[in-house]
Amino acid sequence: MAISLTESAADRVRGHLERRGHGVGLRLGIKKTGCSGYAYVVDYADSIDSDDVVFSEFGVKVVVNSDSLKLIDGTQVDFVKEGINEMFRFHNPNIKGECGCGESFSV
User: Fold this and answer.
1) Please, are residues 76 and 89 in contact by the beta-carbon 8 Å criterion?
2) Which helix (H) or strand (E) holds 88?
3) Neighbours of 68 (CB within 10 A)
4) Which of the 8 DSSP states describes residue 49?
5) Does the global pTM surpass 0.90?
6) Which of 32, 28, 5 lies closest to 106 in space, CA to CA?
7) Percentages helix, strand, coil for the chain, rounded to the nearest 5?
8) How do residues 88-97 score in pLDDT, each as one tens digit?
9) Who contacts 99 (Cβ-Cβ below 8 Å, separation ≥6)?
10) In this structure, which of 4, 5, 14, 98 has its CB flanked by the most CB atoms within 10 Å?
11) Could you say which architecture CATH assigns to the domain 4-106?
12) Domain map of the chain by residue range?
């Protein structure tokens, strides 16, 4: 089981954590929503809970609840800039379908 970050994503998270002044890493999870079923939830990880799994890439920790990990195992998180837009992009090998707007996915 693994979640990975590209160097670009790790740099983005590291920079935000430094400006914020606290936190142990990036918290990645999912929630039920949208027309396809699930959406990613991205936040700061201020602590590591007993049911969390921790991955490290380029010196940045990625904290994932074990229930979420079942649906996003193998995901690579990238950070991309497209014109004036900046976003995290998720490459999840478990996805069976996505909604037209790209906000939610099914597995």
Assistant:
1) no
2) strand 85-91
3) 20
4) -
5) no
6) 32
7) 20, 45, 35
8) 989 888 776 6
9) 34, 35, 36, 105
10) 5
11) Sandwich (2.60)
12) 4-106
